[in-house]
Structure formats: structure tokens, C-alpha cells
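Batch manifest, entry 17 of 40.
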Amino acid sequence: MMLGESWKLSRKPILTRAITPEQRDVKSVFLVDHYNEADVKPAEMLNAYVQLAEKNVNDLFLRDTFVNCDCPGCGASDRAETFRRFNLDYVSCPRCHTLWVSPRPDDESIKRYYANSDAEIYWREKLSRETALARVERIVLPRVDWIIDSTQQYLPDADHFVDIGTHHDVYARCLSEIGRFSRKTLLNPICEINPGALAHSTNIVNEHISKAMPDNSVDAISMFEVLDRTSNIDGAMSHARRMLRPGGLIFITGILSTGFDIMTLWDQAQNIFPPDRLNVFSVEGLTMLMERHGFNVLEFSTPGMFDTEAVIHAVETNPKIQVPRFVSYMLENRGPEGRQRFQEFLQMNLLSSFGRVLAQRQ
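Output type: C-alpha cells
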């Protein structure tokens, strides 16, 4: 698949405004685009994937090797018990509201899970392939645009781009075709990638992140949903910072615990389960993580599309789910246009559960 005119036509309008979390100007964007979650995650396939994941988590992870960890966001040791998913415990941080699994498997165990589990094989060979075109248009290309536009704005001389933990071969192909960089590296992908399908300027490196790249040798890094499924968060961030040159950029996406659907559904949220969501950062927690590791946050946005849709689907699927009266009233008495305006309100106020962060190494 080559990026060309179809890529240009796929670009969606982006509205930008300034926000000031903690007395600092940080850019935030919201996306004017409308599509259904079923386009990229058909309900029947998603349910099959979740069922396989639950079985695999219970079968493949050895509980006696699990380790406890402090808050991956702010680093605080205090935690409150919340709920269990797949027989693993989620705890929350009273300080920054991050949600995470503790005790938890280590990164080597997680790597084996993504290489060998039936759930991941199903995702790669069934769900991802059957939704590939929609995923390219709705997910991959907007992220490519984000990388290109932001790099041009903040680091126009950037040359070397690294994607860490590439999850799907369609991502690999699209990222390899970014003409903005003369060198591209896919570092420790968790899927099989055919090198022949990649642009000539792209290398695949399978080596521990601590040894993979020389210090200060990379201009831009992307970590799409990588922190969500990483056990040693501080280790991953330290190595990413070490690889980046001073002023280098890091692009991060993930699910946020402070999003409307997660806060509303909580333990009934279908997309919160290990190891895909080993960490569910809050807006505050992810900001603190960046600052703890020597990054300045340039953009923090929550351009999610599906918060209201997720709550509606959950309540329709399981009428026993109790939601706040305001939410129930809004969903029952406001039509599609009202719900869409509410979703845009969530985006504009950092209250959607999909987050993206652009930060710059100090």
C-alpha cells in the first residue's frame, strides 16, 4: 500500500485552541470527523477477541512471577483497590487518578503473550485484516499527519524516526512510507512484518530497548498504545529519552482513565483489561510521567470519538449497568446531534478516553 492522493484526501479538519493545564500553555486539538466504532472494531469480533484474551491471560501468565509497582504516572506509592479483570487487580492512584494493574507480569512475559497468544493471533489475522481499510483511513493516516505536521512545526530538520512496539503490519507499511524522514526504524515490533513490504529507508530492529540505539541518535519517536501495555514504565521512558537528541519529539497515544466512558462505566468498561490496558493513565498522570522524565508537553489532546457510543452500547447490552441520572437522561432524551455535540465537548475539555500527547525532550 502506497501513500499518495488517497492519503491527501483522507485528511480531516482539525481545530486548535490553547489550554493552560498547570499554568503552562499546551496545545489541544479536537477532530471534526464522524464514524462508528464498529467500522474499526466490529462488536462480534471484539467480543471474540476479549474472550480469547481472558482465557490466554489466565493460561499464559505465571502469577508467582508478578511484581508490585507504584503509580506509573506520578510515581506515588499510595493506591486504592478498585476492581478485578481477568483475575488481575486494578488499583487507582488517589493523587493523579491513574489506574493500573498491580501486581503485574514483567515485560518479557508480555512480549511472549503478544507473540503467541490466540487473542493476538485472532487480532492480527482476523479483526485487523478485515477492518484494514477503515483503520488506515480513520486511525493510521491521521496519526501520520500528526507526526508530519508536528515535526515540521517543532523540529523541521528531523531526519531519523523510530516507532517503538509496532503493533500491526498496516502501521508498519504506512509509517515506512513517511517521506518526511530519510531514516525510519521499527523497534521491537510485536507483530510479524515483511521487510519487503516496507520502504527502502526503513529498518527493523529487534533488540532490547536499552541497547537498540545510541544515545542522542533519534529525532522523533512514536509509541502508539505502547505505554498502555508496558510493565516497566519508567524503564521504557528513560530509554526513549536517552535515544532522543535534545529537542527530540515523542508521540504517545493511549486510553485515559479520566475519559467520560471509563469514568461512567468503570469496572464495566469493555476496553479495560490486561495486558492491553495494564496502565490506564489519567490526563494528570500522563502529564506527570512526561515531566518526571524530562519532557515538555507541547500538545495534550483527547480527540476520542466513541465515549457516548460506548456508554450507550454498554447499557443496551447489559441493562443492569447503573449510570448517573444525568447520563441516563441525556442518552434517552437527546438525539444523535446532541450526543455528537456532547462528544465534541468532551474532546475540547480533555474528557474523552482516547488521548494523544506530543512532548519534547528538554
